[in-house]
Design a protein that fits this description.
The complex is a heterodimer of chains A (450) and B (44). Chain A contains 11 helices and 23 strands. The radius of gyration of chain A is 28 Å and the shape is globular. Chain B has 1 helix and no strands. Classes of the chains: A alpha/beta (450), B mainly alpha (44).
Chain lengths: 450, 44
C-alpha cells in the first residue's frame, strides 16, 4: 500500500466513495466523493490529539473489542497515516485543536467531489466477515463466543490485548479452545457456497499459532470437511495435527453457557468415531469461523457500477471458467473476492489478470464493437422513454428528436424494442422480419407434413 | 443446454435463436400461435 501511495503514476483516494460512473470503455468518467476527515492532509499521524480526546467510539478495526478516541487513525498501518474525526462521537471540546502542533484540525471540512477520467475500471471491493445472527451458536449472547476476525485482532501484537490471548468474559487465558468451521457457509439457510477453504486455512493457522505460544492449550477444530486445497496447504494441515490440534468431524447446532464460569458446553457426536456416542464437552473460548461474504457496500456501489451480481452476492464474471476476470461491461474487470471467495494467492493472481486485461485494452488504443445494436426510427419515436427504463446497459438517451442509442454501450439484447409501443426500434441483423420469416417457414413445413 | 444434459424433447419442437429473451416481442408470439403453432416457450 505504501508503494501505491508513493508511486507518482497512481492517484490514491482514501476515505472516499465512487458516487457516479458514466461513459464507456476508454472514456469512463468517474465521480469520487471524498468524505471529510476534519483533519488536513498536513497531519503527520503523531497521535497527540488521540491522547487528549475525551470522547470514545466503536473501534471498527478491532471489531469493537476495545474503544477508540473520537479522533483516531483507522488502524496502525493506515496509508496515508492521517487522523480523522468521528463526528457522531465528537463532543467538539477543541482539546485536539490545542494539542495539534501542525494546526491540522479543521472542523469545517466539507465533502468533496472529484471527477476523474479513466479508460478501464478494476473492481477490487474485497470481502467482509459474515455476521451470525444474534444467538446463533451463542454469538452476541455469550461473552466467550467470538468470530475468527475478532480472534485475529486478539492475537495481533498491535491488537486490543497486545497479542495476549485472553477471553472476553474475565480476561483470563483460555485453556480449552474450540474452532467451529462453516459458520454461515455451506448452509442452505445462510450461504450455500464454501468460502473457498479460506476459513479452514485461517483456523489451522490460528490453532497452530496458539499452540506455539501456549503449548498446553487444548485446541479442537469442529469441521465438516477440511478443504486444504492449495500449494503446501495439506502439509500445513498435517503439521497442525502433529502439533497436537484435535480435529472433530461434526456439525454443532447448539452451545450452552455454564452461568458461574462462563464456560461453554456442547454436545457432539464425532462422525468418524461413532462408537464413542454423544459426548459432552466444555470449552473456555469458542471461535466461529464465519463465511466470507461480499463487501457490505457492494449493493450501493453497484447502483453506479451496474454490474451483474450472481446469486451468492458476488459480482458476476462473463464466464465462470473461460472468462473469470472480465465483466459483461467492456472495460470493467474484477479482482479478488469481489468476484467470489478466494485466498490471498488467488486474489493476487486475479488482480494480475485484471491489470493485464486493462493494459491489453489500453495499449491497443482501438476497441472493436459488435454491430448488433439497436436502431431508432426517430420519425416513429413518441419519446415515451420506456426503452430507457428497460435498458440494462444505460445505452439510450433521450434527445429532442427522439431516443438515441449509444452505439458503444448497446449490447444488442433487444429489450428496448420489445417494449417499444411505437415499434420505432429495430435490432440490426436481427430484425422483426427475419424472425417472422423463420416462424412462417417453420409453420409451413409442419403444414406440409400434415 | 438440452444437448449437453442429454435432455429428450419432442421432435415437433423448432428452436429459434434470439439474442436475449427480452428480444421476443408479443407480436412474434402471436404470429406463431396465429399461424398454427400449439405453443411458444420463451426459454433463457
Amino acid at each position: 500500500m505504501l508503494d501505491v501511495a508513493r508511486n507518482e503514476k497512481i492517484r490514491l483516494f482514501t476515505y472516499s466513495e465512487v458516487s457516479d460512473i458514466s461513459g464507456y470503455i476508454g472514456n469512463f468518467s468517474v465521480e469520487i466523493t471524498k468524505k471529510p476527515r476534519y483533519v488536513k492532509d498536513i497531519c503527520n499521524g503523531c497521535s497527540a490529539c488521540m491522547d487528549v480526546c475525551p470522547a470514545h467510539g466503536y473501534n471498527e478495526f478491532n471489531l469493537g473489542l476495545n474503544p477508540r478516541p473520537a479522533i483516531y487513525i483507522s488502524f496502525p498501518q493506515a496509508v496515508p497515516s492521517l487522523a480523522q474525526i468521528d463526528m457522531d462521537k465528537c463532543i467538539k471540546c477543541g482539546l485536539c485543536i490545542e494539542a495539534c502542533e501542525l494546526e491540522a484540525i479543521d472542523f469545517d471540512q466539507k465533502t468533496e467531489k472529484i471527477n476523474v477520467e479513466v479508460g478501464t475500471i478494476s473492481v477490487a471491493t474485497g470481502w467482509d466477515e459474515y455476521i451470525p445472527e444474534d444467538g446463533y451458536l451463542g454469538y452476541n449472547k455469550y461473552d466467550n463466543v467470538i468470530t475468527q476476525l475478532q480472534l485475529e485482532r486478539i492475537l495481533a501484537p498491535n491488537g486490543p490485548t497486545m497479542g495476549q490471548l485472553v477471553r472476553p468474559s474475565d480476561g483470563k487465558e483460555p485453556k480449552r479452545i474450540l474452532f467451529i468451521q462453516c459458520v454461515g457457509s455451506r448452509d442452505l439457510n445462510r450461504n450455500v457456497y464454501c468460502s473457498s477453504g479460506v476459513c479452514c486455512m485461517v483456523s489451522i493457522k490460528n490453532s497452530k499459532l496458539i499452540k506455539q505460544h501456549y503449548p498446553d492449550a487444548d485446541i479442537t477444530v469442529a469441521y465438516m470437511d477440511i478443504r486444504a486445497s492449495g500449494k503446501y496447504y495439506e502439509e500445513y494441515y498435517t503439521a497442525s495435527r502433529i502439533a497436537g490440534v484435535k480435529y472433530l468431524r461434526t456439525n454443532i447446532s447448539r452451545i450452552e453457557e455454564v452461568s458461574e464460569t462462563k464456560n461453554l458446553k456442547i454436545l457432539v457426536q464425532d462422525t468418524l468415531r461413532e462408537s464413542l456416542g454423544v459426548q459432552e464437552m466444555e470449552f473456555d473460548l469458542i471461535i466461529l469461523s464465519a463465511a466470507m461474504i461480499p463487501n457490505y457496500d457492494i449493493l450501493s456501489l453497484n447502483k453506479v457500477l451496474k454490474l451483474e451480481v450472481s446469486p451468492d452476492g458476488f459480482f458476476k464474471e462473463t464466464h465462470a471458467r473461460l472468462e473469470p476476470i472480465n465483466t459483461k461491461i467492456p472495460g470493467i474487470s474484477l479482482a479478488g473476492v469481489s468476484q467470489g471467495p478466494k485466498s490471498i494467492a488467488e486474489s493476487i493472481m486475479q488482480a494480475g489478470g485484471s491489470a493485464s486485461s486493462a493494459g491489453k485494452l489500453m495499449t491497443r488504443k482501438k476497441y472493436k464493437i459488435d454491430l448488433i445494436i439497436a436502431e431508432v426510427d426517430k420519425e416513429k419515436c413518441s419519446k415515451c422513454g420506456l426503452c430507457i427504463l428497460n435498458c440494462s446497459y444505460n445505452a439510450i438517451n433521450m434527445t429532442e428528436d427522439g431516443a438515441e442509442v449509444d452505439e458503444i454501450n448497446c449490447r444488442g439484447c433487444g429489450s428496448c424494442l420489445s417494449n417499444c409501443p411505437s415499434e420505432a426500434i429495430t435490432l440490426r441483423y436481427y430484425r422483426e422480419s427475419h424472425y417472422e420469416a423463420q416462424i412462417d417457414a417453420i409453420l409451413k413445413e409442419f403444414e406440409e407434413v400434415a | 443446454m438440452a444437448g449437453t444434459i442429454r435432455a429428450q424433447y419432442p421432435t415437433t419442437i423448432r428452436p429459434i435463436r434470439v439474442n436475449c429473451t427480452a428480444r421476443v416481442t408479443p407480436s412474434l408470439i402471436m404470429r406463431s400461435i396465429g399461424n398454427g403453432a400449439d405453443g411458444v416457450l420463451v426459454i433463457g
